[in-house]
């Protein structure tokens, strides 16, 4: 039953750390009247500062349980080049979606903003997104928790169960925030749950065909920044990178999400299928 204990430990670490990180931002704002960027720094520091060392410690127990420690772990710096793979894939899929929508007349791109209007905010948000969201979530969910599940289940069941754990982390933190009187960081509804279900599957499949958590970190980060600075940038006080007109309200969001997540799943399945065919044929 050790794999269950490891799963509970990893899941609890993510839930507790995410709640404490969000709480630290609220406390710093109320007690010290800190700026938004200072809150971002504190939240990212707390989240990664708690999750990453604990998950790396738990990984040692996963390796003892499985009896196998890879020469180059999925989180190794030697696999850092796959970070670019994830960033480029998400960017290419989102760009393809806008190109197709533009050719069909669904979206009309009206203007491109110069970098001096948004680059500073983008850079700050990249640092926040890495340490508060992409790095700790990928280490915990697509990394340690998946490997603990994989010791007990097939790859596809492990992908499914990891995705359900991903959803449960978000829901649990939102419920705890509501119970203690904080505003939940996300609005839990059926659309959001379906979104993170598909997103979790996409990210896990990316890890499977590249063998690197850095791919999922890169893809996760690029997805967040595209959504925040291209599709829905209003909350960051800067103009969007692209100004476009939609034939139907919300179409840009739908196309971006669909192309990046569904496209990422399709690309991953095609590559995994091709690799499996090549192995069988040889």
UniProtKB/TrEMBL annotation:
Membrane-crossing segments per the record: 39-59, 80-106, 118-135, 156-180, 186-206, 213-231, 251-274
Keyword Transmembrane helix part of the UniProt annotation: yes
A Pfam entry, by short name: Rce1-like
Key words of the record: Membrane, Transmembrane, Transmembrane helix
Residue ranges annotated for the CAAX prenyl protease 2/Lysostaphin resistance protein A-like domain, each copy included: 122-223
Stated name of the protein: Lysostaphin resistance A-like protein
Organism of provenance: Lysinibacillus xylanilyticus
